[in-house]
Amino acid sequence: MSAAIRVLLADDEHLIRTALAQMLDLEDDVEVVAQAASGDEAVAMAVKHQVDVAVLDLQMPGLDGTAAAEAIVRQLPGCGCIIVTSHGRPGHLKRALAAGVRGFLPKTTSAVTLAEVVRTVHGGGRHVDPQLAAEAIAAGDSPLTPRESDVLELAATGAPIDEIAERASLSSGTVRNYLSNAMTKLGAANRHDAVAIAQRMGWI
């Protein structure tokens, strides 16, 4: 009999993580060998336990799921990463795929489906939830430049222009220009509206 697929589960919600672990452990060919409650811990545990597949929540303390996946793939090239999320926005999916993630699923996915996706990803395949994929295609790419996205992300904290400028190492005038460009591209009434639109699409 071949060795079981070694899996890491990372989710900051303890109840969800332990329930998933118990369900996956019922599979004969899957073994949960490590768990983590943050993105940084996920990277460390994946490398320490040399896991075959990492199942990562998208939103965690420290590194988010996408950043954690990118770090895991860089340090452990043979590991397949799966993102499980309750925030399946188009931009999140595209960023995850660009980071090397091979599976992307909503948290409503059944344990049976998750186990199948673990096997698929371990075998070198990919699996993206069809509805999330369709939404991502329909939404198109973000119209924002990387710098506009950065400035808008800083604006999401409610920081004043001067503080955003300092944190982004830009002049206040340049920050205003970036915000104005972002508002125009997104058809937003103001920067708060622009932030809301970009967040809803998963572009920041």
Give a short summary of the structure.
The chain is an alpha/beta fold and 204 residues long.
Explained architecture:
Helix 8 packs across helix 9. 53% of the residues lie in helices and 15% in strands. It has 2 domains: 134 residues, Response regulator (Rossmann fold, 3-Layer(aba) Sandwich); 56 residues, Arc Repressor Mutant, subunit A, CATH 1.10.10. The longest helix has 15 residues. Helix 4 links the parallel strand 4 and strand 5. It has 204 residues and is an alpha/beta fold. The model has no long low-confidence stretch (mean pLDDT 89). It has 10 helices and 6 strands; from the N terminus they run βαβαβαβαβαβααααα.
CATH architecture of the largest domain: 3-Layer(aba) Sandwich
- Helix-strand pattern: EHEHEHEHEHEHHHHH
Distance between the termini: 45 Å
Under CATH, the topology of the largest domain can be stated as Rossmann fold
Largest sheet: 6 strands, parallel
Radius of gyration: 19 Å
**Superfamily (CATH H level) name of the largest domain:** Response regulator
Q: What is the arithmetic mean of pLDDT?
A: 89
For the biggest β-sheet, the strand order reads 2-1-3-4-5-6
Low-confidence stretches: none
Binned, the helix content reads 40-55%
Q: What is the oligomer described by this structure?
A: single chain
